[in-house]
Amino acid sequence: MGLPKTGTTHLQVTLAANRERLGEQGLHYPVTSRGRQHFLPVLDFLESPFGGIKPADVAGTWAELVRSVQRSSGRALVSHELLSGASADQVGRLTETFAPSPVHLIVTMRDMSKLLPAVWQERTKNRVVESWTQFRAAVAQGPEGGHLFWRLHDLEKVLSAWRSHVPDERVHIVTVPAAPDRHVLIDRFASVIGVDRSGLVEPPEATNESIGLLELAILREVNTAAEDRLTPQAYRSLVKRRLVRDVLKDRPDQLKAMLPASDRQWVETYTRRVQSTLKERSYDIVGDLDDLWPTRFSEEDPGSPASTGEFPANVMKRAMAEVIIDLLGAPAARGAAKQRDA
């Protein structure tokens, strides 16, 4: 299920790349006629618009995925982090769909001090113009503040929706390791789904491009201008792929987003509550709950760009001019690279 930005994309890409190998080990990772991943079927199941994709655009994909699962023998795995937003009624409908087979829930979790910058960045890459300061202040109010972050990351609410339909012993909490090692996460996940990790081919690179604070400030300006000028399809092609992937992610000396030390108290308080909640239940904990303890805070001045994500006008103008030059040169660079490869 997720939660979002807890290594889910890397796990899903690994699963898709190893579909045949997983099948040989008795685990079916279904595909549909519209792709190898489960994003569209889950949107269809939740009946929820997302990123300009309407329910009518995905109609039938969930039924197709279910048929694929029901035709398989042995175990099957459905994976998308948007399922963390499912209501108790939707969870009940999901478990009834696959009855009488028992449904297990896998929840991946991450240190909040690393999670928040990743979520804010992903939101910015999906047309949101909210600043780093605004995002942090809103999330710090907790679920009661109503920020969309908590719709998919309020662990107590998420687990409550599943608990009436999936018993604790079938809930598996997989922690993202404190050290940045994707192999450990794959090992932990493989132990839950019952496959031999040594036989899997792991994709060499992450598919979610990470960019710095200055680059995100540029992207927010683009988002503001693109609000009513680019269709969702055009935004994905021109902004997410060409601008972010081809230009922004490769800019040198990027300053990464980090929580300022002023956020440490509320983040640590929240983490203690989460750890206590998990210890109280008989969930299968894979990894270590200490992995969730927040460790990544900036000691920079609270008013500095490293803390606020805001930059002086002259810095922004210079950076945006450089990005334009890079954009103009990107097609030529790609053409030259293709010639070299040939």
Walk me through this protein's architecture.
The chain is mainly α. It folds into 2 domains: 8-30 and 72-207 and 260-299, Rossmann fold (3-Layer(aba) Sandwich), CATH 3.40.50; 211-255 and 312-342, no CATH class. The protein is built from 16 helices and 7 strands. It has helices spanning 8-17, 19-24, 39-46, 55-58, 61-71, 88-97, 112-124, 132-139, 149-153, 155-163, 182-193, 213-226, 232-246, 264-280, 305-308, 313-341, and strands spanning 27-28, 75-76, 105-109, 171-175, 259-260, 284-286, 297-298. The strands form 3 sheets. Strands 3-4-6 form a 3-stranded parallel sheet, covered by helices on one side. A two-stranded parallel ribbon has the order 1-2. The chain has a two-stranded parallel ribbon with strand order 5-7. The radius of gyration is 21 Å and the shape is globular.
